């Protein structure tokens, strides 16, 4: 063994001497040329080609490097060594490929090898900003026969996957516009944002399960059909109108939609918008994959229904929309026109982004102008009704933990008998259950008593079907819900006829 190590040391010494001799006999330029030609010669007989993706391209950050790093988080679970990271404004931890480690990925029957190369930067050159001490990059090895396919579809797939991962890992944001657009966030935009932490989901939403499924299918179909919108020449956007009595869960529905799709929310306060041009600027500064909300649109602005009394011109002063309480007639400039609002939802300026949903909420749909409700602006009309038997069971599960079969048949039958006639909102039911959440039996008992009192009050006030069989307030609400379910896409003529009839009444 001792002789073996002695021979190995002698061989290493000879090799070092030969390298020193070659360095002294051959200039660096000649050695570089020989090495380059040897590499080219080896590439001719190799079935692979290599691509380097550096972290910094000149002085700019390489977007493709960040995308590859995120993309490999979905494949790096097969690696023995991973690095854990948590991005800014994120509540989740992601893993990535460690330094100088490699991983094999497969895409549509093509196999590639990724290697994360990290080396120390030798010298700092003069630059307008300091460079990192480490030089990072990815080396992609692909077979020559797959080169064209990999550089096209595969890299596009990486960018799309990375964007999706980035969106899922980042917390949702809730934006609001400031007075006159004067306030700016850290990015210099006229929207101020806070993390969106609303816990509402479709699972916890107190609504008929069949109606929830229809809404969820519509949202999913919208988010996955970019090619359809492009092929048909339509802007990739959709409008939802939420209407119904106060306390029926319109705001919770918006939160559930945002959590389901993973979209940000822009809560537009029309009373803070001074002009049509400012409204357009706010729209231009919204991002894709977002929900633009105008809550209680019948209260935030003095909206005149053109069909209510007489036919009016678009240019008459009465068609100005004045911010509530702002005194638009006093000349302080806080007015926008109906035309500006319509173009905001379905005009040329509404197409400056993609994958956005406009949501309007109102307690009085009859006060809104029919032009605002037509398809293309509000494509789906969702009636947020009083509690049904199915929604009460959802609330009992949410607040008291009652599962199917936990309540006695007598209690369930009594609830089913009175809930429709009680006209009680999910907000009222929730308050009763929260107040008595530590005593489940008492909570159910008080809820039943409250419903029975409401039924007696409604019967006394004549809110149920009258003696002459004509539709009353309760029946009219049921009729609106039925029409919303039968025609979820809001046929323009049907809605206009309904609005005009309600206004005349």
UniProtKB/TrEMBL annotation:
Presence of the UniProt keyword Magnesium in the record? yes
Molecular function GO terms recorded: ATP binding; ATP hydrolysis activity
Signal peptide range: 1-16
Show the catalytic activity. Answer: ATP + H2O = ADP + phosphate + H(+)
Q: SUPFAM superfamilies attached here?
A: P-loop containing nucleoside triphosphate hydrolases (SSF52540)
Q: Where is this region: Disordered?
A: 459-505
Query: What's the domain of life for this entry?
Result: Eukaryota
Q: What residues does the AAA+ ATPase domain cover?
A: 237-388
Alphabetized InterPro entries for the sequence:
AAA+_ATPase, AAA_N_dom, At3g28540-like_C, ATPase_AAA_core, Mitochondrial_chaperone_BCS1, P-loop_NTPase
One Pfam family cited in the UniProt record for this chain: AAA
Q: Name one GO biological process term.
A: response to stress
Q: Which UniProt keywords apply?
A: ATP-binding, Hydrolase, Magnesium, Nucleotide-binding, Signal
* Cofactors required: Mg(2+)
Q: Which family does it belong to?
A: Belongs to the AAA ATPase family. BCS1 subfamily.
Q: What is this protein called?
A: AAA+ ATPase domain-containing protein
């Amino acid at each position: 063994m001792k002789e073996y190590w002695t021979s190995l040391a002698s061989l290493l010494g000879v090799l070092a001497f030969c390298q020193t001799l070659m360095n002294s006999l051959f200039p660096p330029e000649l050695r570089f040329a020989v090495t380059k030609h040897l590499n080219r010669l080896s590439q001719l007989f190799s079935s692979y080609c290599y691509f380097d993706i550096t972290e910094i391209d000149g002085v700019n950050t390489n977007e493709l490097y960040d995308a590859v790093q995120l993309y490999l988080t979905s494949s790096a679970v097969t690696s023995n060594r991973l690095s854990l990271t948590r991005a800014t404004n994120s509540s989740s931890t992601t893993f990535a490929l460690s330094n100088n480690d490699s991983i094999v990925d497969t895409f549509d029957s093509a196999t590639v090898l990724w290697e994360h190369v990290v080396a120390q930067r030798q010298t700092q050159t003069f630059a307008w900003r300091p460079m990192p001490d480490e030089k990072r990059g990815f080396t992609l090895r692909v077979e020559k026969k797959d080169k064209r396919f990999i550089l096209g579809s595969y890299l596009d797939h990486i960018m799309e996957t990375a964007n999706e991962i980035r969106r899922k890992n980042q917390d949702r944001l809730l934006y609001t516009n400031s007075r006159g657009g004067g306030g700016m966030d850290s990015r210099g935009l006229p929207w101020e944002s806070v993390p969106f932490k609303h816990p509402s989901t479709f699972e916890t939403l107190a609504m008929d399960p069949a109606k929830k499924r229809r809404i969820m299918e519509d949202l999913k179909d919208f988010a996955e059909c970019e090619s359809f919108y492009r092929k048909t020449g339509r802007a990739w956007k959709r409008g939802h109108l939420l209407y119904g009595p106060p306390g029926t869960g319109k705001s919770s529905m918006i939160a559930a939609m945002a959590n389901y799709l993973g979209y940000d929310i822009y809560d537009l306060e029309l009373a803070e918008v001074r002009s049509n041009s400012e409204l357009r600027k706010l729209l231009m500064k919204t991002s894709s994959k977002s929900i633009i909300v105008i809550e209680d649109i019948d209260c935030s602005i003095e909206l005149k229904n053109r069909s209510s009394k007489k036919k009016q011109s678009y240019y008459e002063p009465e068609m100005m929309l004045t911010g509530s309480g702002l005194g638009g007639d006093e000349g302080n400039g806080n007015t926008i026109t109906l035309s500006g609002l319509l173009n905001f939802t379905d005009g040329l300026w509404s197409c400056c982004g993609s994958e956005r949903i406009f949501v309007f909420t109102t307690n009085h749909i009859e006060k809104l102008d029919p032009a605002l409700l037509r398809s293309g602006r509000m494509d789906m009309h969702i009636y947020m009704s009083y509690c049904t038997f199915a929604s009460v069971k959802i609330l009992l599960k949410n607040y008291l933990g009652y599962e199917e079969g936990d309540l006695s048949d007598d209690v369930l039958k009594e609830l089913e008998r009175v809930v429709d006639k009680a006209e009680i909102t999910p907000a009222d039911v929730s308050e009763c259950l929260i107040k008595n959440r530590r005593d489940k039996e008492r909570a159910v008992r008080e809820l039943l008593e409250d419903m029975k009192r409401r039924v007696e009050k409604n019967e006394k006030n004549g809110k149920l079907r009258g003696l002459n069989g004509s539709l009353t307030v309760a029946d009219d609400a049921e009729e609106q819900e039925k029409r919303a379910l039968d025609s979820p896409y809001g046929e323009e003529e049907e809605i206009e006829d309904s609005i005009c009839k309600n206004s005349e009444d």
